[in-house]
Design a protein that fits this description.
By secondary structure, the chain is of the alpha+beta class. It contains nine helices and eight strands.
Length: about 325
């Protein structure tokens, strides 16, 4: 009996020690699992960074397209609906991020997503609005104006074509580059008269005291213009790809700021030559103004392709920095 009792005690001790060891091992395993999960939550994976950059780029593309492209004019209600949906998504993501942060739940991905959406929305709208005014808005303005052909700058006056967008002149018309002038105010604003004969030729027409020929209309109204495309005095005048003769046409300048600068240049020119310019009209001298108008429709959509690629690369980098920032401040 004594031997049996001793054997029983030995068995109980071994069982108890084995149970303690198993419990300690289970406890250590649970702690290791917890620490591993925490490290994984804090780790920054490539998919996390990619998702932030892709989401921001998508927001940028939608915002830019709604503000800069033809949808703003042709389907304004759809553009407003898309922008509202984009804003709603950004607001919802921000709200969920704040709620999860207060509940001490993993929140870093929500915060990065919210920042990415807001960045894409705002940047796309700002850049898109700029492209709208240099592209489709100009196209719309030109479409509401008229086109005229067979204009004789020596006889016709610009006051008769105040609603003109495109002007096609007679075959004998050219830009008198020798009579060009440069006016500098930050940029160099270059002007040259559009005429049918050189203003300083030896013709029998009436002349000013400075020796310039006075046209039959009595006024030099049509001007080829450009910025930073001529010498300091106006010559050489290089504001067109081709100053020659097929065809002789111009697209009217609509920018009020530039027109004010060219107006000052004309005033200086008239004071120098003695010739009048009663209703100056400023034109970009080109081969086909109607084609140039049509190309304005696609300025924003063409730019969007390159801008979206550049934005995506930058957004990936910013997404990574945001993840690093929030991880530094212990956001999981």
């Amino acid at each position: 009996k004594a031997i049996l009792a001793l054997a029983a005690r030995i068995v109980i001790v071994h069982v108890f020690q084995g149970t303690n060891q198993s419990y300690s091992a289970m406890k250590l395993s649970a702690e290791s699992t917890f620490l591993l999960k925490k490290q994984l939550q804090q780790a920054i994976g490539p998919l996390d960074v990619l998702a932030g950059g892709a989401g921001s780029t998508l927001a940028f593309v939608i915002s830019f397209a709604c503000v800069a492209c033809s949808i703003r004019a042709t389907s304004s209600s759809l553009a407003v609906l898309l922008m509202a949906a984009l804003v709603g998504s950004a607001v919802a993501t921000t709200y969920l991020g704040i709620v999860k942060a207060r509940q001490r739940k993993p929140v870093r991905h929500w915060l990065v997503g919210a920042a990415a959406l807001w960045a894409g929305l705002v940047i796309g709208a700002v850049i898109g609005n700029t492209y709208w005014y240099i592209g489709y808005a100009k196209y719309q303005a030109y479409q509401e104006m008229a086109s005229y052909v067979n204009i004789d700058p020596s006889r016709d006056k610009a006051g008769s074509y105040m609603d003109a967008a495109s002007l096609y002149f007679q075959e004998t018309t050219f830009v008198d580059a020798n009579a060009a002038l440069a006016f500098r105010n930050g940029l160099t604003y270059c002007i040259a008269p559009i005429v049918t004969e050189p203003l300083q030729s030896g013709s029998n027409s009436s002349k000013t005291a400075s020796g310039f020929n006075i046209p039959k209309s009595g006024s030099i109204d049509f001007w080829a213009v450009g910025t930073d495309c001529c010498g300091t005095s106006g010559t050489p005048f290089l504001c067109t790809a081709d100053l020659s003769y097929s065809p002789h046409a111009g697209l009217r300048l609509l920018d009020d700021t530039e027109r004010a600068m060219y107006q000052l240049a004309v005033q200086e020119w008239t004071a120098t030559t003695g010739l009048a310019s009663k209703h100056p009209m400023f034109l970009t001298w080109m081969q086909d103004p109607l084609e140039a108008q049509y190309q304005l429709k696609s300025v924003a959509s063409t730019a969007l392709v390159l801008l979206s690629m550049v934005y995506f690369v930058v957004a990936i980098f910013i997404s990574y920095l945001l993840h690093m920032f929030f991880r530094h401040w212990k956001f999981q």
